[in-house]
Design a protein that fits this description.
By secondary structure, this protein is of the alpha/beta class. The protein has one domain: TIM Barrel. A hairpin with a 5-residue loop joins strand 15 and strand 16. Helix 4 runs parallel beside helix 6. The longest helix has 18 residues.
């Protein structure tokens, strides 16, 4: 049975449903012993701004990727806004994304330009305002000419391509969009190391790498077979090389679009952060909670909304484990302040990043939701909460809680319904004994000392309470 959520009801709001939805975890595959790279889970989740909304809206409006760009003057406006309105609260980075051409223009063969903007100049613009630059790129993508020599080897970029000697899963298919590095080929390890060395020398310490499911088995749940699929062992070897070099150069890795087979065995071992939900797209409550609510799938994306994704994968997260990424937030697409509080609270309760995708000219008066200093203390503390249940068919997954490093507890009561809900939650039901001082982190008010939380949570809203002695 679930936790009793209201003393006025004879049965729990959160009792498990008799037709509880089966959790469709990805299948298991046997692997040889994986290489060890040492401890990599030492980072807190990042707070940053992404270009995603700008690019997404351009694409929706019919602008071809090849024609998409952000000029230097627009970057100045973006960086000034982030530095002024967000940086004081811990948002210390701006990050590129896909869409805009990713170009290699020097003899290294690695990416040097994001559209018309040289990355070195973008790094300088950010640094002048006390910010860092994160880059969307993948060490398994080849940008430069085939004849480019891989530094420190006798091989060139051409040797990294599929040449028929590697067993692939879909031999009758070509690779869509990307020139992939085959991790089994000579020079692959050195190419990946050179990728991270290149970015470290540029001053970039965050890489967001996408389309990993396409590399592993070539499958896309929406598009079918989209590439050759280089196999489980090659995929694992590639991520091991990536983790080793990223650790060597002090670069944070964000893994995007992974199938998460074998209960995320490879991704949780070799990535600092991993996406656990489909793309943000148009955003709003649809992406936060409503899309395919309560459903899970065995391949990417395993869940279609943030809430289900964080719930479904909560068992692999933790203060010293891989960070779960709920993708970008577009507050301007939500319909109520209650929804805006929920989407920010969910990321922070789950120990995930808060990734601003709103732009300086779309944010409106919503900056205050990103800059709740009391809630952002969870991020600073590397707090990671858990739902009472990680089952998608059990409404106990709408109660989250965890403990901060100083012993305080934080409890989140969420309401995904379209109407208000009453809560009466005994702390003892969470294993928290005695009476505690309570503070509402959104209302910024002390609520006295108690052993029970009583609250009416509005539709699509939440109540986040910090308990201290």
């Amino acid at each position: 049975m679930g936790i009793i959520a209201s003393a006025a009801l004879a049965v729990s709001f959160f009792a498990s449903c008799s037709d509880e939805i089966e959790m469709r975890y990805p299948p298991k595959y046997e692997l040889p012993e994986l290489p060890e790279v040492g401890e990599i889970h030492t980072y807190k989740a990042p707070l940053y701004w992404s270009v995603y909304e700008y690019c997404y809206e351009q694409s929706i409006n019919g602008v071809a990727n090849a024609d998409m760009d952000i000029k230097s003057e627009e970057w100045d406006k973006i960086i000034d806004w982030v530095a002024t309105d967000l940086k004081p609260y811990g948002y210390d980075m701006v990050c590129t994304d896909g869409f805009i051409p990713m170009l290699a223009s020097d003899n290294t063969g690695y990416m040097t330009h994001y559209g018309s903007m040289a990355l070195k100049d973008l790094v300088a613009k950010c640094k002048a305002k006390g910010l860092k630059l994160g880059v969307y790129d993948n060490p398994l993508w080849i940008h430069g000419p085939r004849e480019t020599t891989i530094d420190g080897t006798i091989y060139n970029f051409g040797s990294l391509y599929y040449n028929g000697s590697t067993t692939v899963l879909n031999p009758n298919n070509e690779d869509l969009w990307f020139n992939w590095v085959v991790a089994d080929q000579a020079g692959a390890k050195e190419y990946i190391d050179g990728f991270f060395k290149h970015y470290k020398e540029l001053g970039v310490e965050y890489i967001r790498m996408d389309f990993l499911s396409w590399y592993e088995d070539g499958k896309d749940r929406g598009m079918g077979i989209v590439s050759r699929g280089y196999g489980r062992e090659t995929y694992a070897r590639a991520l091991a090389y990536i983790a080793e070099s990223a650790k060597k150069y002090g670069i944070f890795t964000s893994l995007v679009m992974p199938h998460m087979y074998n209960d995320a065995e490879v991704e949780a071992k070799y990535g600092n952060m991993v996406r656990i939900v489909c793309d943000t797209g148009a955003g709003g409550w649809w992406h936060c909670s409503a899309q395919d609510k309560g459903k899970s799938y065995a391949t990417w994306p395993n869940c279609m909304n943030m809430f289900d994704g964080f719930t479904y994968w909560s068992h692999i997260s933790g203060r010293d484990n891989v960070i779960l990424d709920g993708d970008f937030i577009r507050l301007n697409k939500f319909e109520s302040d209650a929804e805006r509080e929920t989407v920010i609270s969910l990321q922070l309760m789950a120990g995930g990043p808060v990734t601003v995708a709103d732009q300086y000219n779309t944010i409106g008066n919503n900056t205050k939701f990103y800059t709740n200093a009391e809630l952002l203390e969870l991020n600073t503390d590397r707090f990671v909460g858990k739902p009472v249940s990680d089952k998608l068919g059990n409404r106990d997954n709408e109660i989250w809680y965890g403990q901060m490093s100083n012993g305080d507890y934080v409890i989140g009561l969420f309401n995904r319904d379209d109407s208000p809900r009453d809560y009466s939650l005994k702390l003892s039901d969470l294993g928290i004994s005695g009476e505690w001082k309570m503070r509402d982190l959104w209302r910024h008010t002390d609520e006295g000392t108690a052993s029970t939380i009583n609250a009416k949570v509005q539709a699509h809203g939440c109540k986040i309470v910090r308990l201290c002695k």
